[in-house]
Design brief:
By secondary structure, this protein is α+β, with helices and mostly antiparallel strands. The protein has 19 helices and 17 strands.
Length: about 525
Protein backbone atom coordinates (compact mmCIF):
# COMPACT_ATOMS: atom_id res chain seq x y z
CA UNK A 1 0.00 0.00 0.00
CA UNK A 2 1.39 3.45 -0.89
CA UNK A 3 2.52 5.85 1.84
CA UNK A 4 1.34 9.46 1.88
CA UNK A 5 4.21 11.95 2.12
CA UNK A 6 4.47 15.68 1.79
CA UNK A 7 6.76 15.43 -1.24
CA UNK A 8 4.96 13.15 -3.68
CA UNK A 9 2.06 15.55 -4.41
CA UNK A 10 -0.22 12.65 -5.20
CA UNK A 11 -2.79 12.87 -2.41
CA UNK A 12 -5.78 12.06 -4.59
CA UNK A 13 -4.06 9.12 -6.27
CA UNK A 14 -2.98 7.76 -2.87
CA UNK A 15 -6.58 7.80 -1.59
CA UNK A 16 -7.78 5.98 -4.67
CA UNK A 17 -4.98 3.44 -4.29
CA UNK A 18 -6.08 2.75 -0.70
CA UNK A 19 -9.64 2.08 -1.86
CA UNK A 20 -8.45 -0.36 -4.53
CA UNK A 21 -6.23 -2.20 -2.04
CA UNK A 22 -9.18 -2.59 0.37
CA UNK A 23 -11.20 -4.33 -2.36
CA UNK A 24 -8.21 -6.52 -3.11
CA UNK A 25 -7.75 -7.45 0.58
CA UNK A 26 -11.43 -8.32 0.72
CA UNK A 27 -10.96 -10.94 -1.99
CA UNK A 28 -7.67 -12.46 -0.76
CA UNK A 29 -8.19 -12.65 3.06
CA UNK A 30 -10.87 -13.69 5.44
CA UNK A 31 -10.71 -10.58 7.62
CA UNK A 32 -13.76 -9.20 9.33
CA UNK A 33 -16.00 -7.37 6.90
CA UNK A 34 -16.82 -4.77 9.57
CA UNK A 35 -13.23 -3.51 9.83
CA UNK A 36 -12.86 -3.33 6.05
CA UNK A 37 -16.14 -1.47 5.67
CA UNK A 38 -15.18 1.04 8.35
CA UNK A 39 -11.81 1.71 6.72
CA UNK A 40 -13.45 1.98 3.31
CA UNK A 41 -16.06 4.42 4.63
CA UNK A 42 -13.35 6.53 6.28
CA UNK A 43 -11.15 6.82 3.22
CA UNK A 44 -14.15 7.34 0.94
CA UNK A 45 -15.48 10.18 3.09
CA UNK A 46 -15.77 13.43 1.06
CA UNK A 47 -13.97 15.36 3.84
CA UNK A 48 -10.95 13.06 3.64
CA UNK A 49 -10.89 13.40 -0.12
CA UNK A 50 -11.08 17.20 0.17
CA UNK A 51 -8.14 17.13 2.55
CA UNK A 52 -6.22 15.05 0.03
CA UNK A 53 -6.91 17.64 -2.66
CA UNK A 54 -5.76 20.45 -0.34
CA UNK A 55 -2.61 18.46 0.47
CA UNK A 56 -1.89 18.08 -3.24
CA UNK A 57 -2.39 21.79 -3.87
CA UNK A 58 -0.09 22.84 -1.04
CA UNK A 59 2.73 20.48 -1.93
CA UNK A 60 2.67 21.26 -5.64
CA UNK A 61 2.60 25.07 -5.33
CA UNK A 62 5.52 26.90 -3.75
CA UNK A 63 4.10 29.95 -1.97
CA UNK A 64 6.45 32.91 -1.67
CA UNK A 65 5.67 36.29 -0.09
CA UNK A 66 5.86 39.16 -2.56
CA UNK A 67 6.85 41.62 0.15
CA UNK A 68 7.78 41.13 3.80
CA UNK A 69 6.77 44.56 5.11
CA UNK A 70 3.27 45.18 3.81
CA UNK A 71 2.34 47.25 6.89
CA UNK A 72 5.19 49.71 6.33
CA UNK A 73 4.39 49.88 2.65
CA UNK A 74 0.75 50.68 3.47
CA UNK A 75 1.85 53.40 5.88
CA UNK A 76 4.12 54.94 3.24
CA UNK A 77 1.28 54.98 0.74
CA UNK A 78 -1.00 56.70 3.25
CA UNK A 79 1.66 59.33 3.91
CA UNK A 80 1.94 60.00 0.18
CA UNK A 81 -1.83 60.32 -0.12
CA UNK A 82 -2.14 62.85 2.73
CA UNK A 83 -1.54 65.77 0.36
CA UNK A 84 -3.87 64.42 -2.32
CA UNK A 85 -7.39 65.78 -2.66
CA UNK A 86 -8.83 63.39 -5.23
CA UNK A 87 -11.79 61.26 -4.21
CA UNK A 88 -10.04 58.01 -5.13
CA UNK A 89 -6.94 58.97 -3.15
CA UNK A 90 -9.00 59.85 -0.10
CA UNK A 91 -10.96 56.60 -0.39
CA UNK A 92 -7.76 54.51 -0.72
CA UNK A 93 -6.20 56.24 2.28
CA UNK A 94 -9.33 55.58 4.35
CA UNK A 95 -9.45 51.89 3.38
CA UNK A 96 -5.77 51.31 4.16
CA UNK A 97 -6.20 53.01 7.55
CA UNK A 98 -9.14 50.91 8.76
CA UNK A 99 -8.27 48.64 11.73
CA UNK A 100 -9.23 45.47 9.86
CA UNK A 101 -6.90 46.15 6.93
CA UNK A 102 -4.10 47.15 9.31
CA UNK A 103 -4.63 43.89 11.24
CA UNK A 104 -4.68 41.85 8.01
CA UNK A 105 -1.41 43.36 6.76
CA UNK A 106 0.19 42.90 10.18
CA UNK A 107 -0.82 39.24 10.16
CA UNK A 108 0.59 38.86 6.65
CA UNK A 109 3.96 40.29 7.71
CA UNK A 110 4.09 38.07 10.79
CA UNK A 111 3.47 34.92 8.75
CA UNK A 112 5.92 35.96 6.02
CA UNK A 113 8.75 36.69 8.46
CA UNK A 114 8.26 33.61 10.60
CA UNK A 115 7.93 31.12 7.75
CA UNK A 116 10.91 29.30 6.28
CA UNK A 117 9.96 30.34 2.76
CA UNK A 118 12.58 32.23 0.83
CA UNK A 119 11.27 35.61 -0.30
CA UNK A 120 11.22 36.31 -3.99
CA UNK A 121 13.87 38.48 -5.59
CA UNK A 122 13.16 42.11 -6.10
CA UNK A 123 13.24 41.76 -9.86
CA UNK A 124 11.04 38.67 -10.07
CA UNK A 125 7.69 38.98 -11.78
CA UNK A 126 4.29 38.35 -10.29
CA UNK A 127 1.47 36.36 -11.88
CA UNK A 128 0.22 39.40 -13.80
CA UNK A 129 3.64 40.08 -15.31
CA UNK A 130 4.53 43.14 -13.22
CA UNK A 131 7.66 43.37 -11.14
CA UNK A 132 7.32 42.65 -7.45
CA UNK A 133 7.90 45.44 -4.96
CA UNK A 134 11.37 45.60 -3.41
CA UNK A 135 11.87 44.63 0.21
CA UNK A 136 14.38 45.85 2.77
CA UNK A 137 14.11 42.73 4.89
CA UNK A 138 17.47 41.29 5.93
CA UNK A 139 18.50 38.56 8.30
CA UNK A 140 19.58 41.15 10.89
CA UNK A 141 16.17 42.84 11.01
CA UNK A 142 14.36 41.85 14.24
CA UNK A 143 10.84 40.50 14.03
CA UNK A 144 8.06 42.80 15.24
CA UNK A 145 5.31 40.59 16.64
CA UNK A 146 2.43 43.07 16.62
CA UNK A 147 -1.02 41.87 17.71
CA UNK A 148 -4.45 43.36 17.08
CA UNK A 149 -6.92 42.79 19.91
CA UNK A 150 -10.57 43.66 19.49
CA UNK A 151 -13.38 43.94 22.05
CA UNK A 152 -16.72 45.62 22.62
CA UNK A 153 -17.05 48.45 25.14
CA UNK A 154 -20.22 49.91 26.60
CA UNK A 155 -20.28 53.64 27.24
CA UNK A 156 -20.61 53.32 31.03
CA UNK A 157 -18.33 50.32 31.49
CA UNK A 158 -14.64 50.73 32.46
CA UNK A 159 -12.17 48.47 30.70
CA UNK A 160 -10.41 47.52 33.93
CA UNK A 161 -6.76 48.31 33.17
CA UNK A 162 -4.20 50.77 34.48
CA UNK A 163 -1.13 51.78 32.49
CA UNK A 164 2.33 53.11 33.24
CA UNK A 165 4.79 54.97 31.02
CA UNK A 166 8.21 53.31 30.74
CA UNK A 167 10.92 54.23 28.23
CA UNK A 168 8.46 56.36 26.22
CA UNK A 169 6.15 53.37 25.90
CA UNK A 170 2.74 52.78 27.48
CA UNK A 171 2.63 49.46 29.32
CA UNK A 172 -0.27 47.73 31.02
CA UNK A 173 0.54 47.86 34.73
CA UNK A 174 -2.40 45.87 36.09
CA UNK A 175 -5.61 44.21 34.96
CA UNK A 176 -8.50 44.39 37.41
CA UNK A 177 -9.93 41.00 38.26
CA UNK A 178 -13.48 40.48 37.01
CA UNK A 179 -13.28 43.20 34.35
CA UNK A 180 -14.14 42.54 30.69
CA UNK A 181 -10.47 42.43 29.71
CA UNK A 182 -9.73 39.95 32.49
CA UNK A 183 -12.63 37.71 31.44
CA UNK A 184 -11.56 37.64 27.79
CA UNK A 185 -7.87 37.12 28.59
CA UNK A 186 -6.74 39.00 25.46
CA UNK A 187 -4.43 41.51 27.14
CA UNK A 188 -1.68 40.78 29.63
CA UNK A 189 0.48 42.72 32.07
CA UNK A 190 3.48 44.47 30.39
CA UNK A 191 1.79 44.50 26.96
CA UNK A 192 2.70 47.72 25.15
CA UNK A 193 -0.22 49.69 23.70
CA UNK A 194 0.66 51.28 20.35
CA UNK A 195 -2.70 52.30 18.86
CA UNK A 196 -6.41 52.31 19.61
CA UNK A 197 -8.73 52.13 16.58
CA UNK A 198 -5.91 53.37 14.38
CA UNK A 199 -5.09 56.33 16.64
CA UNK A 200 -1.43 56.38 17.71
CA UNK A 201 -0.95 56.65 21.49
CA UNK A 202 2.73 57.69 21.35
CA UNK A 203 3.27 56.58 24.94
CA UNK A 204 0.95 59.27 26.32
CA UNK A 205 -1.50 57.98 28.97
CA UNK A 206 -3.64 61.13 28.66
CA UNK A 207 -4.34 60.39 24.97
CA UNK A 208 -5.38 56.86 25.85
CA UNK A 209 -7.61 57.97 28.73
CA UNK A 210 -9.35 60.71 26.73
CA UNK A 211 -9.97 58.38 23.82
CA UNK A 212 -11.35 55.50 25.91
CA UNK A 213 -13.70 57.79 27.84
CA UNK A 214 -15.41 58.80 24.61
CA UNK A 215 -15.14 55.45 22.83
CA UNK A 216 -18.09 53.07 22.61
CA UNK A 217 -18.74 49.92 20.63
CA UNK A 218 -15.92 48.07 18.91
CA UNK A 219 -12.38 48.89 20.08
CA UNK A 220 -9.23 47.49 18.45
CA UNK A 221 -5.90 47.70 20.29
CA UNK A 222 -2.58 47.42 18.48
CA UNK A 223 -0.09 46.03 20.98
CA UNK A 224 3.35 44.53 21.35
CA UNK A 225 2.64 41.45 23.47
CA UNK A 226 4.71 40.52 26.51
CA UNK A 227 3.94 36.80 26.11
CA UNK A 228 3.44 36.52 29.87
CA UNK A 229 0.33 34.70 30.96
CA UNK A 230 -1.74 36.15 33.79
CA UNK A 231 -1.08 34.16 36.96
CA UNK A 232 -3.89 32.47 38.83
CA UNK A 233 -4.50 34.73 41.85
CA UNK A 234 -4.16 33.47 45.41
CA UNK A 235 -7.42 34.31 47.15
CA UNK A 236 -7.28 36.08 50.49
CA UNK A 237 -10.20 37.27 52.60
CA UNK A 238 -9.80 40.32 54.81
CA UNK A 239 -11.98 42.01 57.39
CA UNK A 240 -11.58 45.77 57.22
CA UNK A 241 -10.92 47.73 60.40
CA UNK A 242 -10.83 51.15 58.72
CA UNK A 243 -13.01 53.26 56.43
CA UNK A 244 -11.57 54.05 53.00
CA UNK A 245 -12.67 56.44 50.26
CA UNK A 246 -10.52 56.36 47.08
CA UNK A 247 -11.78 59.79 46.01
CA UNK A 248 -10.05 61.34 49.03
CA UNK A 249 -6.83 59.37 48.67
CA UNK A 250 -4.03 61.42 47.13
CA UNK A 251 -1.72 58.42 46.75
CA UNK A 252 -3.99 56.18 44.68
CA UNK A 253 -2.70 55.56 41.14
CA UNK A 254 -6.24 55.76 39.71
CA UNK A 255 -9.29 57.21 41.49
CA UNK A 256 -11.70 55.54 39.07
CA UNK A 257 -10.20 52.10 39.76
CA UNK A 258 -10.34 52.49 43.55
CA UNK A 259 -12.65 50.42 45.76
CA UNK A 260 -14.13 52.13 48.79
CA UNK A 261 -15.14 50.17 51.87
CA UNK A 262 -16.36 50.63 55.43
CA UNK A 263 -15.20 49.17 58.71
CA UNK A 264 -16.43 45.63 59.20
CA UNK A 265 -16.76 44.78 55.49
CA UNK A 266 -15.26 41.56 54.10
CA UNK A 267 -13.10 41.84 50.97
CA UNK A 268 -11.61 39.18 48.73
CA UNK A 269 -8.06 40.10 47.70
CA UNK A 270 -7.41 38.69 44.22
CA UNK A 271 -4.04 40.23 43.37
CA UNK A 272 -1.06 41.25 45.53
CA UNK A 273 1.49 41.76 42.76
CA UNK A 274 1.84 45.45 43.61
CA UNK A 275 3.36 45.89 47.07
CA UNK A 276 1.40 49.10 47.69
CA UNK A 277 -1.92 48.56 45.92
CA UNK A 278 -3.88 45.33 46.06
CA UNK A 279 -6.86 44.32 43.94
CA UNK A 280 -9.94 43.31 45.92
CA UNK A 281 -13.69 42.91 45.57
CA UNK A 282 -16.64 42.58 47.90
CA UNK A 283 -18.16 39.23 48.86
CA UNK A 284 -21.47 38.14 50.34
CA UNK A 285 -22.00 36.30 53.62
CA UNK A 286 -20.92 32.98 52.07
CA UNK A 287 -17.75 34.35 50.48
CA UNK A 288 -19.13 34.54 46.94
CA UNK A 289 -17.74 37.54 45.02
CA UNK A 290 -20.00 40.37 43.98
CA UNK A 291 -19.14 43.39 41.88
CA UNK A 292 -15.94 44.32 40.10
CA UNK A 293 -12.46 44.36 41.57
CA UNK A 294 -10.83 47.63 42.58
CA UNK A 295 -7.64 48.98 44.11
CA UNK A 296 -7.18 49.17 47.88
CA UNK A 297 -4.10 50.23 49.87
CA UNK A 298 -1.97 47.33 51.04
CA UNK A 299 -1.40 46.54 54.70
CA UNK A 300 2.14 47.95 54.72
CA UNK A 301 1.21 51.13 52.85
CA UNK A 302 -1.70 51.95 55.16
CA UNK A 303 0.33 51.19 58.29
CA UNK A 304 3.09 53.54 57.14
CA UNK A 305 0.59 56.27 56.29
CA UNK A 306 -1.22 56.05 59.62
CA UNK A 307 1.99 55.91 61.63
CA UNK A 308 3.18 59.09 59.90
CA UNK A 309 -0.16 60.77 60.64
CA UNK A 310 0.22 59.85 64.30
CA UNK A 311 3.75 61.27 64.41
CA UNK A 312 2.67 64.49 62.68
CA UNK A 313 -0.20 64.92 65.14
CA UNK A 314 2.24 65.38 68.03
CA UNK A 315 2.63 69.05 68.95
CA UNK A 316 6.10 70.61 68.56
CA UNK A 317 6.39 71.30 72.30
CA UNK A 318 5.47 67.71 73.06
CA UNK A 319 8.26 66.59 70.74
CA UNK A 320 10.79 68.80 72.53
CA UNK A 321 9.59 67.58 75.89
CA UNK A 322 9.82 63.97 74.80
CA UNK A 323 13.44 64.42 73.70
CA UNK A 324 14.47 65.50 77.20
CA UNK A 325 13.03 62.41 78.82
CA UNK A 326 15.25 59.44 79.37
CA UNK A 327 14.18 56.31 77.53
CA UNK A 328 13.14 53.50 79.84
CA UNK A 329 12.39 49.86 79.15
CA UNK A 330 8.93 48.63 80.06
CA UNK A 331 7.95 44.97 80.39
CA UNK A 332 4.70 44.07 78.71
CA UNK A 333 1.95 43.37 81.24
CA UNK A 334 -1.67 42.49 80.53
CA UNK A 335 -2.91 44.64 83.39
CA UNK A 336 -0.94 47.68 82.20
CA UNK A 337 -0.99 47.42 78.43
CA UNK A 338 -3.51 50.12 77.54
CA UNK A 339 -0.61 52.38 76.55
CA UNK A 340 0.58 49.75 74.07
CA UNK A 341 -2.93 49.27 72.68
CA UNK A 342 -3.16 52.94 71.74
CA UNK A 343 -0.27 52.50 69.33
CA UNK A 344 -1.61 49.40 67.59
CA UNK A 345 -2.53 50.05 63.94
CA UNK A 346 -5.33 47.73 62.85
CA UNK A 347 -5.96 47.88 59.09
CA UNK A 348 -7.01 44.42 57.93
CA UNK A 349 -7.44 41.02 59.51
CA UNK A 350 -7.24 37.77 57.58
CA UNK A 351 -10.45 35.81 58.05
CA UNK A 352 -12.10 32.62 56.82
CA UNK A 353 -15.73 31.74 56.21
CA UNK A 354 -16.93 28.72 58.22
CA UNK A 355 -20.29 26.92 58.42
CA UNK A 356 -22.73 27.76 61.24
CA UNK A 357 -21.33 26.92 64.69
CA UNK A 358 -22.20 27.81 68.29
CA UNK A 359 -19.76 30.06 70.12
CA UNK A 360 -18.40 28.94 73.47
CA UNK A 361 -18.09 32.35 75.11
CA UNK A 362 -19.89 35.69 75.18
CA UNK A 363 -17.71 38.65 76.11
CA UNK A 364 -19.66 41.70 77.32
CA UNK A 365 -17.82 44.99 76.98
CA UNK A 366 -19.13 48.30 78.35
CA UNK A 367 -17.74 51.53 79.71
CA UNK A 368 -18.70 50.38 83.21
CA UNK A 369 -17.75 46.89 84.43
CA UNK A 370 -20.66 46.87 86.91
CA UNK A 371 -23.11 47.62 84.10
CA UNK A 372 -21.62 44.80 82.01
CA UNK A 373 -22.07 42.40 84.95
CA UNK A 374 -25.74 43.40 85.16
CA UNK A 375 -26.24 42.56 81.47
CA UNK A 376 -24.48 39.22 81.96
CA UNK A 377 -26.74 38.31 84.92
CA UNK A 378 -29.87 39.17 82.91
CA UNK A 379 -28.77 36.81 80.10
CA UNK A 380 -28.04 34.01 82.58
CA UNK A 381 -31.40 34.55 84.32
CA UNK A 382 -33.34 34.36 81.03
CA UNK A 383 -31.82 31.04 79.97
CA UNK A 384 -29.95 29.49 82.93
CA UNK A 385 -29.71 26.07 81.27
CA UNK A 386 -27.75 27.52 78.35
CA UNK A 387 -25.58 30.25 79.85
CA UNK A 388 -23.31 30.36 82.86
CA UNK A 389 -21.61 33.31 84.52
CA UNK A 390 -18.92 33.48 87.18
CA UNK A 391 -20.36 35.74 89.88
CA UNK A 392 -18.25 37.46 92.52
CA UNK A 393 -18.88 34.82 95.21
CA UNK A 394 -17.72 31.94 93.01
CA UNK A 395 -14.74 33.98 91.86
CA UNK A 396 -13.55 34.78 95.39
CA UNK A 397 -14.03 31.17 96.49
CA UNK A 398 -11.99 29.95 93.52
CA UNK A 399 -9.19 32.45 94.25
CA UNK A 400 -9.08 31.46 97.94
CA UNK A 401 -8.83 27.74 97.13
CA UNK A 402 -6.05 28.12 94.58
CA UNK A 403 -3.97 30.58 96.63
CA UNK A 404 -3.37 28.02 99.41
CA UNK A 405 -0.74 26.10 97.40
CA UNK A 406 2.20 27.05 95.24
CA UNK A 407 0.84 25.19 92.19
CA UNK A 408 -2.53 26.80 92.75
CA UNK A 409 -0.97 30.26 92.82
CA UNK A 410 0.86 29.57 89.52
CA UNK A 411 -2.37 28.34 87.93
CA UNK A 412 -4.22 31.36 89.28
CA UNK A 413 -1.69 33.86 87.91
CA UNK A 414 -1.95 32.17 84.55
CA UNK A 415 0.45 32.31 81.63
CA UNK A 416 -0.02 36.08 81.32
CA UNK A 417 1.20 36.98 84.82
CA UNK A 418 -2.04 38.55 86.02
CA UNK A 419 -4.16 37.12 88.86
CA UNK A 420 -7.53 38.40 87.70
CA UNK A 421 -6.90 37.26 84.11
CA UNK A 422 -5.85 33.79 85.21
CA UNK A 423 -8.96 33.54 87.39
CA UNK A 424 -11.25 34.55 84.54
CA UNK A 425 -9.75 32.01 82.17
CA UNK A 426 -10.02 29.16 84.70
CA UNK A 427 -13.64 30.00 85.46
CA UNK A 428 -14.45 30.21 81.74
CA UNK A 429 -12.92 26.78 81.11
CA UNK A 430 -15.00 25.24 83.91
CA UNK A 431 -18.27 26.66 82.56
CA UNK A 432 -17.46 25.58 79.00
CA UNK A 433 -16.55 22.13 80.28
CA UNK A 434 -19.98 21.82 81.90
CA UNK A 435 -21.61 22.23 78.46
CA UNK A 436 -22.81 25.80 78.90
CA UNK A 437 -21.91 29.00 77.09
CA UNK A 438 -19.74 31.15 79.35
CA UNK A 439 -20.65 34.82 79.79
CA UNK A 440 -17.43 36.69 80.47
CA UNK A 441 -17.35 40.27 81.73
CA UNK A 442 -13.85 41.28 80.85
CA UNK A 443 -11.61 44.19 80.08
CA UNK A 444 -10.40 44.76 76.51
CA UNK A 445 -7.04 43.29 77.48
CA UNK A 446 -8.69 40.03 78.55
CA UNK A 447 -10.76 40.04 75.36
CA UNK A 448 -7.53 40.00 73.33
CA UNK A 449 -6.35 36.95 75.27
CA UNK A 450 -9.52 34.85 74.97
CA UNK A 451 -9.85 35.56 71.25
CA UNK A 452 -8.68 32.05 70.34
CA UNK A 453 -10.16 28.83 69.00
CA UNK A 454 -10.25 27.44 72.55
CA UNK A 455 -12.86 29.93 73.73
CA UNK A 456 -14.50 30.90 70.38
CA UNK A 457 -15.69 34.22 71.84
CA UNK A 458 -18.51 36.38 70.53
CA UNK A 459 -17.66 39.92 71.65
CA UNK A 460 -20.52 42.36 72.16
CA UNK A 461 -20.05 46.04 72.83
CA UNK A 462 -23.10 47.47 74.61
CA UNK A 463 -23.03 51.15 73.77
CA UNK A 464 -24.84 53.49 76.15
CA UNK A 465 -25.45 57.20 75.60
CA UNK A 466 -24.68 59.87 78.16
CA UNK A 467 -28.22 59.77 79.58
CA UNK A 468 -28.03 56.07 80.44
CA UNK A 469 -24.44 56.35 81.64
CA UNK A 470 -25.56 58.57 84.53
CA UNK A 471 -27.75 55.75 85.84
CA UNK A 472 -24.76 53.38 85.92
CA UNK A 473 -22.90 55.47 88.50
CA UNK A 474 -19.55 57.21 88.27
CA UNK A 475 -17.36 54.12 88.04
CA UNK A 476 -16.28 54.23 84.39
CA UNK A 477 -13.26 52.10 83.48
CA UNK A 478 -13.33 53.05 79.78
CA UNK A 479 -14.70 55.84 77.66
CA UNK A 480 -16.76 55.06 74.57
CA UNK A 481 -14.24 57.06 72.55
CA UNK A 482 -11.35 54.81 73.61
CA UNK A 483 -13.33 51.62 72.95
CA UNK A 484 -14.34 52.72 69.45
CA UNK A 485 -10.85 53.92 68.61
CA UNK A 486 -8.63 51.17 69.99
CA UNK A 487 -10.69 48.00 70.45
CA UNK A 488 -13.34 47.83 67.73
CA UNK A 489 -11.26 45.30 65.76
CA UNK A 490 -12.05 42.74 68.48
CA UNK A 491 -15.81 43.43 68.55
CA UNK A 492 -18.29 41.21 66.66
CA UNK A 493 -21.48 43.18 67.39
CA UNK A 494 -22.54 46.57 68.72
CA UNK A 495 -25.82 46.77 70.66
CA UNK A 496 -27.31 50.12 71.61
CA UNK A 497 -28.47 50.20 75.23
CA UNK A 498 -32.17 50.82 75.83
CA UNK A 499 -32.94 48.78 78.96
CA UNK A 500 -31.46 45.70 80.63
CA UNK A 501 -33.98 43.14 79.37
CA UNK A 502 -33.96 44.32 75.74
CA UNK A 503 -30.17 44.22 75.60
CA UNK A 504 -30.09 40.71 77.06
CA UNK A 505 -32.73 39.43 74.62
CA UNK A 506 -30.92 40.99 71.65
CA UNK A 507 -27.66 39.27 72.56
CA UNK A 508 -29.45 35.91 73.01
CA UNK A 509 -31.08 36.27 69.57
CA UNK A 510 -27.71 37.02 68.00
CA UNK A 511 -26.18 33.92 69.59
CA UNK A 512 -29.00 31.74 68.20
CA UNK A 513 -28.60 33.24 64.72
CA UNK A 514 -24.95 32.13 64.67
CA UNK A 515 -26.16 28.53 64.61
CA UNK A 516 -27.93 29.06 61.25
CA UNK A 517 -25.61 31.30 59.22
CA UNK A 518 -22.04 31.28 57.94
CA UNK A 519 -19.51 33.19 60.00
CA UNK A 520 -16.27 35.06 59.34
CA UNK A 521 -13.65 34.21 61.94
CA UNK A 522 -9.87 34.78 62.23
CA UNK A 523 -7.88 32.26 60.22
CA UNK A 524 -5.99 31.30 63.39
CA UNK A 525 -9.21 29.63 64.57
CA UNK A 526 -9.33 27.43 61.49
CA UNK A 527 -5.73 26.67 60.47
Amino acid sequence: MSRITSDDGEGERVVQNVLNNIIRVKELTASKNTDKELLQALVGNPIVQSLAKAHTGITEKKIKPVVLEASELSTSICNLLDDSTGDLCVELSRVLSTPHIVALLGCHDSVAKRSNLTPGKSDSKTSNGSKSLPTKMTEETPMRAVRMVGMYKKSWEPLGITVVKEDKQLKIARILQGSEIDKKGLLHIDDIILEVNGTAINGDPKILKDYLIKATGSIVFKILPSYEENQVPKLLYLKCHIDYDPEKDKLTPCHEAGLGFARGEILQVVDQTDADWWQARRVNNKGEPRGRAGLIPSQSLEEKRRSMQEINSILPEDRRRSKKRRSTRRMYSVSQNSAFDKHDIAVYEEVACIPPISRKTIVILMQSMSAAETVARRIADLEPEVYGIADNAATLSRMSTLSRSKDGREELNGEHGDTSTGMELLTAREIIGSGKICILVASPQTLKIVRTSEFLPYAVYVKADSGHMESFGKNYELSSKDIERYYMQYIDSVVDFSNWDDVAKTIIEQMKSLETRHQWVPTSWVY
